[in-house]
Design goal:
Helix 1 runs parallel beside helix 6. With about 300 residues, this protein is α+β, with helices and mostly antiparallel strands. Strands 1, 2, 3, 4, 7, 10, 11, 12, 13, 14 and 15 form an eleven-stranded mixed sheet that branches. It has a five-stranded mixed sheet with strand order 16-18-19-20-17. It contains eight helices and 20 strands.
Length: about 300
């Protein structure tokens, strides 16, 4: 069984929980998720099965889209509702839509993010959440994050007694973005404490919510002998042109050999990466050799 499952991860489960359960359902150990979703976050979680596990890092580089809610007026130690309130602020009056839009747009493009203490980022060989749980602090390196858009998606709610403002949002971003840190940074822009109070991942390229199956659905389909929940590897690599490997190169490609780019047909010149097929089967993804300009090497073997 080789392919990708667009799984809808439900709240209360870790990404590893999903992998563990799918190993039992599918009766295979070769299962890997493509980017952690926190337990309190639901949504699209692509899961790689069999040979597709070789594409986990490839999938993690894909764009993500989230919808959620942010509250200005208090902060927690985890930057979401899983943590304890550590600070509060008071907003004297509600923001206008224009003011909020300016704050959101200030966080679009390439930005610097400091990962939250309650995260799986490693510093000096230890995960940040290990430091946090031990009550220790450590300097956290800044990371680049790409925010394609960050937008308000509905009306704001203002609690004048508590001086808190809540609004729904949608964000499209690149690899490694912490949405709860975006909420904190937005609060900083307005001189307020802020917390991400709800989050759902609605897309993880190329999959969207409507493509997803829940664990119980996958289990029922497997018991019925139906594997239509499985997306083929080709679906993830569809943007790359197909190279039908000629007979005299089949053995070399099957063994992952470095080849001269002149072996490609004219129409594929300067089109790397290419999907290499042998007798109708996807065998490799060939790309530019990092050191030899006229050579190509397999980026992935299948």
């Amino acid at each position: 069984m080789d392919g990708i499952i667009a799984l809808w991860k439900e709240k209360g489960m870790t990404s590893h929980d999903c992998v563990f359960k799918l190993r039992k359902i599918l009766k295979t150990k070769k299962v890997g998720h493509t980017g952690t979703l926190d337990p309190n976050v639901d949504g699209v979680l692509p899961i790689c099965i069999g040979k597709a596990t070789k594409l986990v890092d490839f999938m993690m580089d894909k764009d993500k889209v989230y919808r959620g809610e942010i509250c200005l007026g208090f902060a927690t130690d985890t930057q979401d509702l899983d943590g304890q309130v550590v600070a509060e602020s008071f907003l004297d009056k509600p923001l206008t839509d224009e003011e909020l839009a300016e704050g959101l747009s200030s966080l679009e493009g390439w930005i610097d993010q400091v990962p939250p203490m309650y995260s799986a980022v490693k510093v000096k060989g230890r995960r940040l959440y290990d430091y946090a749980r031990a009550g220790e602090t450590v300097e956290r390196p800044k990371r680049k994050a790409r925010i394609d858009y960050f937008a308000q998606t509905g009306p704001m709610t203002y609690n004048k007694d508590k001086g808190r403002l809540t609004f729904p949002f949608e964000v499209k971003c690149g690899k490694g973005t912490y949405i709860r840190t975006l909420a904190t940074d937005l609060g900083t822009y307005f001189g307020q404490e802020a917390t991400m109070t709800q989050l759902t991942r609605i897309a993880s390229t190329p999959f969207k919510a409507s493509d997803c199956y829940r664990l119980e659905e996958v289990k029922a389909m497997v018991e019925a002998g139906d594997q239509s929940f499985l997306h083929p590897l080709d679906e993830l690599l569809g943007q790359y042109p197909i190279w039908q490997v000629p007979d005299h190169l089949k053995k070399l490609v099957a063994n992952g050999a470095v080849l001269n780019q002149e072996n490609l047909p004219t129409e594929l010149a300067d089109k790397l990466p290419v999907r290499a097929y042998i007798d109708g089967q996807l065998k490799a993804l060939y790309g530019q050799h990092p050191d030899l300009s006229e050579q190509m090497k397999p980026l992935k073997m299948f």
